[in-house]
Write a structure and sequence with these properties.
The structure holds 2 protein chains of 2 kinds.
Chain A (H helix, E strand, L loop, with lengths): L8 H17 L6 H8 L3 H12 L3 H18 L4 H7 L5 H12 L3 H17 L7 H6 L6
Helix pairs in contact in A: 1-2, 4-5
Chain B lengths: L6 E6 L2 H11 L3 E8 L3 E7 L7 E6 L7 H12 L4 E6 L3 H10 L3 E9 L2 E7 L5 E7 L1
Parallel strand pairs in B: 1-4, 5-8
Antiparallel strand pairs in B: 2-3, 3-4, 6-7, 7-8
The chains are: A mainly alpha, B alpha/beta.
Chain lengths: 142, 135
Amino acid sequence: MTLEKYPKVYLYRRIAQAKLFIDANFAGEIDLENIADEAFYSKFHFIRLFKNAYGKTPHQYLTTVRIDKAKQILQLEKPVSLACNSVGFESLGSFSRLFKQIVGITPSAYLDQQKDIKNKLNASPLTFVPGCFAQNYGWIKK
Amino acid sequence: MITKLTHAPVLVLDQESAYDFYVNKLGFKVKLDLPMPKDGRWLTVYPPDQPDFEIILAPVTRSFHSKETTKALKQLVSEGAFGCGVFTCKDIYVTYEELKAKGVQFSKAPTKEFYGTEAIFKDDSGNWFSLAQLV
């Protein structure tokens, strides 16, 4: 089969483009119709194909992207409210509930956890590097 | 007894470029990104569903080897001498289109094999990987 000729290539491209659309626009107002429009599908057909490819419905995937981005912001020790607003949530309560549901702890607890991890990493970074590599790179003496 | 593989190195020509490739293009997560002595950097990433496995984005440097070996390794890496592993996915056709859209170079489009459907791509240094949707 040649490089560009395989079945239903246009379907796969549309699903991939929808996912990339979510990745690029997660912080804005996205609804399923917007995403389906990007994919040129009926809403229900789109959901089924998207879930087959990514293991999540588009809505679930969007939530995951938002929470992942929020975690990255909290890892920089920014306030919870900033993380909430930056990833497209309007309500701090909704954000915190969803965050805890997905991550297992509240955003505040996650922020504290990340501060603790960062302190340990800064205090003794070589603790986290296998000794064989640290030696070979000359970071510790053999 | 050995129970797990937790780290595996991939030799890269430039860690910053490799970061962009593995994190921004392949969608891997960063496990550790730590400054080290002698302008070093300990950079490990993992595929989203394997948080316990770290791929070490290991720069080819003289610290590890002699000058001659380093030069040879850089040549071998950039020529694609190293096939570093097999990544799997739920839907290879969608994943292929997504990665292509992000600029990943494929030497083999998704092709049905007896074990599943496979494509082959290169990272930014030249290392090649199999991408497979297994049967």
